[in-house]
Specification:
The chain is an alpha/beta fold and 282 residues long. Helix content is 44%, strand content 11%. Helix 7 links the parallel strand 5 and strand 6. The longest helix has 22 residues.
Length: 282
């Protein structure tokens, strides 16, 4: 895989020019995802509001969900890659995520991330360079923070929780690179959804054995204390090998597809859906 960057394709959605991780300052990478413009989200969580304020908030949530459902409806064989926004281009985890994105694209998967810098950019970049489809689900941020420039399609969401729903809803597997609080949240929420049967047994692959070793120790302690079952440990796969990660995902997706063959969504002429939106990106 070459280290020479390719010219990013023009996204299907209208998007501002982004900065690559190499062009961002450490402070910009550090602040990615902070300072969402949706300040009413914080106000909403303070407690009861006027009924008209809460009704207006519900309508904004509906609009956010509707935007995501319309934009992502035709994604095919999608794998979401989670991970930190803070790793620079020369970091080993950035290089690993780029390799993972490339391997996923070669295997025929759409690669979806949060659309930001660091690991997100690396996975999108790997998919882009391998000729695959690269998608970003971004959060509305202050104007100086832009999506990474390796996206075929990106959707901006007002609320973090709506974006997280979209990242899970359209995925058939999850790859988790090293990350912080947000990444930990994504690991355990996804594992909980699988454990409780809310989503099918999609694989959750953690990349970076050394980084995730303390988490594995914690999970083993959970088993010993009986807070989770021994079968729950199998929900998570740990590896350093992108090839092994993709093989795990391919095997799981093929098994699930054999049990319940997926039904491709039909295009609605009434809504002007003459072809899948991603077709223009290929």
């Amino acid at each position: 895989m070459t280290d020479e960057p390719k010219e990013p394709r023009k996204p299907v959605e209208v998007a501002p020019e982004g900065k690559s991780t190499a062009e961002q300052t450490p402070e910009e990478r550090h602040q990615w995802g902070k300072g969402s413009r949706a300040h009413e989200e914080r106000r909403f969580l303070l407690g009861p509001l006027l009924r008209r304020e809460e009704l207006a908030f519900l309508f904004r949530i509906f609009r956010d969900l509707f935007r995501g459902l319309r934009a992502l409806h035709f994604l095919e064989r999608c794998v979401t890659v989670f991970g930190s926004a803070r790793f620079a281009e020369d970091h080993p985890y950035y290089k690993l995520a780029r390799h993972v994105g490339s391997e996923l694209a070669i295997a025929g998967f759409t690669v979806m991330t949060g659309g930001g810098p660091g690991v997100m950019e690396a996975a999108n970049r790997g998919a882009h360079e391998a000729g695959g489809v690269s998608v970003g689900c971004n959060i509305e941020l202050p104007h100086e923070q832009k999506p990474n420039p390796y996206l075929d399609l990106f959707v901006e969401f007002r609320y973090f929780f709506v974006r997280k729903v979209m990242l899970v809803k359209y995925s058939t597997a999850f790859v988790v690179m090293p990350g912080g609080f947000g990444t930990m949240d994504e690991i355990f929420e996804t594992a909980t959804l699988i454990q409780t049967g809310k989503i099918r047994g999609f694989p959750v692959v953690l990349m970076g054995k050394e980084y995730w070793a303390p988490l594995v120790t914690l999970i083993e302690e959970m088993v010993r204390e009986g807070t989770i079952g021994t079968a729950d440990v199998k929900l998570i796969t740990l590896t350093d090998d992108p090839g092994e990660a993709v093989q795990t995902i391919v095997a799981a997706v093929e098994k699930l597809g054999a049990e319940e063959p997926p039904r491709p969504p039909r295009r609605s002429w009434l809504l002007g859906e003459r072809r899948p939106p991603m077709a223009a990106a290929r």
